Amino acid sequence: KVVTAPPPAAIRLHWDRSGRDLKADGANKVFVYATITDSKGNPCYLANATLNFSVTGNGQLVGVPAVQAESGIATVLLQSTSQAGPVTITVSGEGLKPQSITIRSHP
Fold first, then answer.
1. What's the CA gap between 34 and 46, in Å, rounded?
2. Is residue 5 pLDDT above 80, yes or no?
3. What pLDDT does 77 receive?
4. Contact, 42 vs 17, CB < 8 A?
5. Which of 9, 17, 91 is nearest to 44 (CA)?
6. Residue pLDDT, tens place only, 56-71
7. Hey, CA dihedral for 80, 107, 30, 89, is it positive or negative?
8. Are 44 and 36 in contact (CB under 8 A)?
9. Is 51:6 a contact under the CB 8 Å cutoff?
């Protein structure tokens, strides 16, 4: 049975740990992925919205804060600072429910 995908409604965030924590050394970086989903959490692979990222706490984005999704996914690079602690990444897009995640950097 083929079903037409519902319209995009939200964003799901996750980060690539690659089996390790974010090290607070001012140079460590991790990828953060924002997947555009429908209201039930299913990925919308045809979505190409521009997503806006912001960071608070002990981290910063590498590159631009606005990224256009490709195949429903937008990727940013997050860099630690030299101070350990929480890093909160928030993403939003027009017509989409925003999402935040908090990553803790470690000494």
1. 14
2. no
3. 97
4. no
5. 9
6. 999 999 999 999 999 9
7. negative
8. yes
9. no
